Amino acid sequence: MEHNILVVGGNGLVGQTIIRILKSRNPHANIFTGGRKGGTDNHLKIDVTDPATFQIIKENKIDLVILSVNDKEDHILRFVMENKIDYLDITKPTPDLVKAYTLAKSRETGSRIVFSSGWMGGIVNGLVKTLSSRTADIQEVKLFVYYSVKDLAGESSAHFMAENVAKPFIRYENNRQIPVKHFLDSEDFDFSFGIGKREVYNFDVPDLYILNQIEKIPNVSVKMTYNSKFITWLLGAFQKVRIFNILSLKERKMIFGSSGNGDQSIFEIVVKTKDGNERLSLQSTKGQAELTALSAVLHTEELLMNSHENNIYFSHQLHQPSLLLEKLKAYGSINIKRSK
């Protein structure tokens, strides 16, 4: 069966990478790029802030919309639900995800609506389930992120940090919501793949909400470190003395907006059950954009190849965890290790 797939934000870094991987793995799919500069061939002119531009989605008989650009007002989500078009969103920070999920639940669902905004395209929550066969047995999940300023990075993550670095967010202790801030509450963590011991700080990703509120895991935390120990220390110092509170949004964007020529991306999941700890370490040698895009493609392929009912999903709910793990392992630039 022929599929018409539209990547909105397809001219951005992650969008372009999704299209490249999707074309290489699914040569028979018709893939359209949606963006403000569209208007020729498979490049459609779509502005997420202007719903009047969405009619072209229906005209091209799009089966699935992949959203890789921030749509703060959820115009695309409203449109696809009204027109019963499948939808995969990889873009939303936690507050926007909660808002969109609430909106989707309030409407009749005539297609597959998939939220995939967790870390690296929403694969963490599926990988958690490979470490314990029963989610009910999991007492705690800790996610540790290694972020390189030399990695290729799109604008959205930098903008999120600039807008939210001075605001509190929520982690969970015994199902209690604990307000915390980025770059505080440091601890040491020994990363795999030759990184070694690093100081890690609070970090907000949607997995906090998903693992606690959806998967009912009582204790969830996320901490991160930069490849530069000095930058990691400096950001912590800025937060402690409230420098971020007095900087303008433009100045904060300058701090978080750097993008290099490419570097590895690493995250580590530690799951605690009554039987002890299990750990999964993942390295993407081509960086976070490649891994995020691959995750979006794996979710897309799952929607195309399997008969998931019309419903609202978080992306990990589409997969059998063991199969997701095997697909990631099979990709050339990904290395995965499991340990106690």
TrEMBL record:
InterPro entries: NAD(P)-bd_dom_sf (IPR036291). Gene3D superfamilies: Dihydrodipicolinate Reductase, domain 2, NAD(P)-binding Rossmann-like Domain. Signal peptide: none annotated. SUPFAM superfamilies: NAD(P)-binding Rossmann-fold domains. PANTHER family: CARBOXYNORSPERMIDINE SYNTHASE. This is Saccharopine dehydrogenase.
